[in-house]
Every structure is written in structure tokens, then in C-alpha cells.
Write a structure and sequence with these properties.
553 residues; alpha/beta; Rossmann fold; Dimethylsulfoxide Reductase, domain 2; 7-stranded mixed sheet; 4-stranded parallel sheet; 17 helices; 20 strands; extended
């Protein structure tokens, strides 16, 4: 007998059941009237074995109910069954005590939520938000209408950001080569390679980040590069504003970012600029609200929207006049418009739809100073430069469009994200990188395949199998910090679980340049670390918190 919670008793083998008489069963079915249902042939045949099983199985003690099923007997048997079920458990549940506050916080009233102002960073985009908190738990994120760059609305990314906080797939521990470690273990392990980099002034030290707008983080990065003058900082985002920057460089001689005032524009021409989609425009909320103000019929001052694009977009779906063209033809269309307005060397090559061009040009000329031309982020630099020149020729600069410095922080010496990433890949291949810190970036998933941050090749030992490798494996000490153990984390020696933006202190800038503070609403659920704390490990004060860094800046 086994020593389990349930008693196991040896029983004699059950007698073998007699075979069914199918002829008798068929005869019985032929005499049946109406519909009849059964669960098995034994039930249909009404064998003695089936009757005995039914009597013993349900109800189990029916033979003891000589006085019928009374309420008293039923309650007695049910109570005994529940008591025995509790006693048969193999484990004892821990005691949980529910106690009231010793000193209840004044602002917390059960059933009444609180609202906190903070900012949601998303690469080069920062949204001022109001977060609803119920008994200390964030439950809803919406726009902050009281912020200078805020809005009463929110997009899908803002609404869904609360799900990332409670995502069970979030990274929950610090890991070194698959083994769970502590923050202290990481700081101790970092000392030896960091001392080696101090001796070489950071010749083998590299940092790779995504786009960010935090002035505190930028200040920390500059301080680290000052301590390690030979180190390099790289930035990589697969969807970036490189074309817009290059176009502004052609037009103004410096990298400026346009800020549109759609509420002042009577005529808008969009050249593949999907400004009403949160996926393609950082100022979506502001632009959508401003554009909507001019689309009210009762106001009597409707604007007109012309859209030239290759595929139907949310902005194109709302256009008064839409011209579908090939993606490669948008630049030539822009040159035709510029030529007819006397911009771009006077080129007046004909486009595929001269009537549409003439109507657009006439409407733009009629509304000088009250019109606006926009270019999509994916358009080449030449289109952006032409759009800046057209807006200037129409007198729109300062009225429907203004220009300001970029809010994202880029390292010196690189003009584009892909140039920066290629430089890092070359240094890794040349074995110049000894310590690489990757913050909020996933090049193994998003980098071009030819850079080999993640690539498949035939295994030499097993020709029938494919093997996945990465140039990151050539870095002796690779550190990855992120919310998830993603594709890049798999190739790094260290992975540090990051804190969610609702768990951390930081700062950021909105698309129009306004500063905003990021404040936590809850302690880190898994003890996650921020980029401020990771960069702080390369300074003289590695124990400083994110709050200390932000307040100090």
C-alpha cells in the first residue's frame, strides 16, 4: 500500500460481465414507442451489472435512506462531505490576516479614486497624462488637458500602456547567463571591466540606446562620456525622423523640427503625411484636435484637405480631395507644385494629373499665409526640403508652421540612426568593443539583416540544422536593460529588468519642447531599475536613485 493522503485498499477483481445479447436489444428497440435516449449499450440492455453500478454510484448511500430523501438527511450528508473534503487536503494553506491601516493616509478614501499627473515616454514621443489610481493601484491612463502640451484625449498607445505594468510576461529578475542575480551582484561584476575601461579612457566602452527626450538622461550620458572620452554612444530606432532632419539641414542649414498650427490653416496639402494617425505622427493628439475644430459645419469656416499618398491612410480617408499615386511619384509631384509656385529652380514638369495640380496650386496661392503643406516622415529629404521652401514662399512660416530644435537627443558625430548602428557593428566585428550597454533598444529584432545582430546560418556540425548567432556574442561583457527578455537579451551576458514608467522617476519633453516630470504611482512590482540607475553605475555615485538624479538635474 502507498503512503498517500488517500487510503488505497486492495480489492478483489470484479467478475467478468456477461456478453450483451444484441438480438434481445434489437427486439427491445423495435417495441419501443417514441424517442428514447441512453448513454451506453449496458443501460439500454438494463444488465444486472449496470443496475448494481447505478445503485452504488449515485446516490452513494441511497440504500440507507429508508425514510426517503428528507431535508435533514440531505444536509447531514452534505455537511459531512464538505468537512471530509477539507480534511483530505495534503497541504496547509498559510494564514492570511486582513488588518486595517494603523495610520490611514489622509488622501485615500475607499471607493474614491485619485488622479496623478505624469508623462508617458514612447521613444521620441512624450504624452502628458493623468493616471487614475484606486487604492494605490494605477488602473487608467488618459490625456492631461491642463498640461501646456496636453490634450483631453488619448491614443491607443496611451490607453494600452497600463497593460504593460501588469503584464505577466514582463522581465522580473536580473539574469546573468540564465542565472538569477541581484543588483549588488551586477555592480560587483561591473567593477573589473569598468576599471579596465578607466585605464584605456573607455576605448572599448559603447552605449546603444533608443530615442529618448529626457534631459536628465542626456546630462548623465554626457557626464559618462566625459569620464570615458574614448567611449561612444550610439542610437538606433527602426522608425525615426532621419529624413526630416536631413531635409531641414538642406533647407535651413541646421536640424529643425516643424510644428504645425492646423487651427490656422484654411487649406492643407498632405504629401504622404498621415498626421491623423498615432502610429505615424508624434503630434497626433494635438493635430487631430486642432484639425477637428475646423471641420465643424456650424462654425461656417471649414478648411479643405488635399491628400496625395500611395495607400489609403486615416488622413486620406478624411480628405476632401485625394490623389492616389505611386510612392515613387510623390517627390516628382512635390517638384511640380514647387515649380508652379516659383520654388525649386522653376521646374514645371507635368505630373500625371494636371487638373489636380492646377486646383491645388490655385487654392494655395489664394490662401497665402493661411495654407499649409506637410511631408510624411518616410519621404526622402528632398521632399521635406521642398515643403519647407513652399511654406516659406506662401508666407506660412510663423503662421501655420513654426520651427524649433529637435526634442530627441542624438550623439555627436552621426547624422542618422543607421549610420550610428553601422559604426557600432563595424567596431564589434573588429573586436574593439569590450563592454556594451544596451538601453531600451532591440537591434537583434529591428536592425538590418546585413549587420548580423541576429542571423541564421548552417551548423557546421549538423548540416541539416540551422543555428542562430549574433555579433553581440563577440562582446565579452554585454549588458541589456529592458522591460522584456527580448531577442537582444538572449545574446547578452547580463539582463536587467527595467521599471515601467508608472514605477519610476524621470523627465521628458513633449513634441513642442515642453518639459514634463515622470513620477511613479507605485513601487516597482519586480524591483526593476531605470536607465538613470544603470548609467549611474558608471559614475562616482552608483547608489543614487532615479529620484536623486532627476532632482539633482
Amino acid at each position: 500500500m502507498s503512503n498517500n493522503c488517500k487510503d488505497e485498499r486492495l480489492k478483489p477483481p470484479a467478475p467478468k460481465a456477461a456478453p450483451l445479447d444484441l438480438a434481445a436489444v434489437r427486439e427491445k428497440l423495435s417495441q419501443a414507442k417514441g424517442k428514447r435516449y441512453w448513454r451506453s449499450l449496458e443501460e439500454l440492455a438494463e444488465t444486472e451489472e449496470f443496475k448494481e453500478m447505478l445503485h452504488r454510484e449515485f446516490p452513494r448511500h441511497a440504500s440507507e435512506w429508508s425514510d426517503g430523501v428528507s431535508r435533514r438527511n440531505f444536509m447531514q450528508l452534505m455537511g459531512a462531505s464538505l468537512a471530509l473534503a477539507g480534511l483530505s487536503a495534503c497541504t496547509k494553506q498559510p494564514v492570511e490576516n486582513i488588518v486595517p491601516y494603523v495610520r490611514q493616509p489622509e488622501e485615500i478614501i475607499p471607493g474614491k479614486p485619485l488622479y496623478f499627473a505624469t508623462s508617458m515616454p514612447l521613444g521620441a514621443v512624450t504624452r502628458p497624462v493623468l493616471v487614475k489610481s484606486d487604492m494605490g493601484r494605477p488602473i487608467k491612463v488618459d490625456g492631461n488637458p491642463d498640461h501646456p502640451a496636453g490634450s483631453s484625449g488619448s491614443d491607443v498607445y496611451t490607453q494600452a500602456s497600463i497593460l504593460g505594468l501588469y503584464d505577466p510576461d514582463r522581465s522580473q529578475t536580473i539574469v546573468e547567463l540564465g542565472e538569477v542575480r541581484t543588483w549588488g551582484d551586477f555592480l560587483t561584476s561591473l567593477q573589473a571591466p569598468l576599471n579596465a575601461q578607466k585605464a584605456s579612457k573607455g576605448a572599448g566602452l559603447r552605449f546603444l540606446t533608443g530615442d529618448f527626450t529626457s534631459p536628465t538622461l542626456a546630462s548623465q550620458m554626457k557626464a559618462v562620456l566625459k569620464t570615458f572620452p574614448q567611449a561612444k554612444w550610439h542610437v538606433w530606432e527602426p522608425v525615426n525622423h532621419d529624413n526630416g532632419r536631413a531635409g531641414a539641414q538642406l533647407a535651413f542649414g541646421q536640424t529643425l523640427r516643424p510644428q504645425y498650427k492646423l487651427e490656422n490653416a484654411d487649406v492643407v496639402l498632405s504629401l504622404d503625411a498621415d498626421f491623423l494617425s498615432p502610429a505615424n505622427n508624434s503630434g497626433f493628439l494635438h493635430y487631430a484636435a486642432a484639425f477637428g475644430k475646423r471641420r465643424k459645419v456650424e462654425a461656417g469656416n471649414l478648411n479643405r484637405l488635399y491628400v496625395v499618398e500611395s495607400i489609403l491612410s486615416p488622413t486620406g480617408a478624411k480628405a476632401d480631395h485625394r490623389l492616389p499615386v505611386k510612392a515613387t511619384q510623390i517627390e516628382s509631384f512635390a517638384r511640380v507644385i514647387a515649380g508652379k509656385l516659383g520654388v525649386g529652380g522653376g521646374a514645371t514638369a507635368e505630373s500625371g494629373n494636371p487638373k489636380f495640380v492646377d486646383a491645388v496650386v490655385a487654392d494655395l496661392q489664394k490662401n497665402r499665409g493661411k495654407s499649409l503643406v506637410m511631408a510624411g516622415e518616410t519621404q526622402p529629404p528632398a521632399v521635406h526640403a521642398l515643403v519647407h521652401a513652399i511654406n516659406d514662399a506662401l508666407g506660412n512660416a510663423g503662421k501655420t508652421v513654426t520651427y524649433f530644435d529637435p526634442v530627441t537627443v542624438l550623439p555627436d558625430g552621426f547624422t542618422s540612426h543607421i549610420e550610428s548602428l553601422r559604426d557600432l557593428a563595424r567596431d564589434i566585428e573588429a573586436k574593439k568593443v569590450e563592454l556594451l550597454v544596451i538601453i531600451d533598444s532591440n537591434p537583434a529584432y529591428t536592425a538590418p539583416a546585413d549587420l548580423k545582430f541576429a542571423h541564421l546560418h548552417m551548423d557546421d556540425n549538423s548540416p541539416a540544422e540551422w543555428k542562430q548567432e549574433s555579433i553581440l556574442l563577440k562582446v565579452p561583457n554585454c549588458v541589456h536593460i529592458g522591460l522584456y527578455q527580448d531577442e537582444t537579451a538572449q545574446f547578452c551576458r547580463w539582463h536587467i529588468n527595467a521599471a515601467h514608467y508608472l514605477e519610476s522617476w524621470s523627465d521628458a519633453r513633449t513634441p513642442d519642447g515642453t518639459f514634463g516630470i515622470i513620477q511613479p504611482l507605485i513601487d516597482p512590482l519586480y524591483g526593476g531599475k531605470t536607465a538613470h540607475e544603470v548609467l549611474g553605475a558608471f559614475t562616482e555615485t552608483p547608489g543614487s536613485s532615479s529620484y536623486d538624479w532627476v532632482r539633482g538635474y
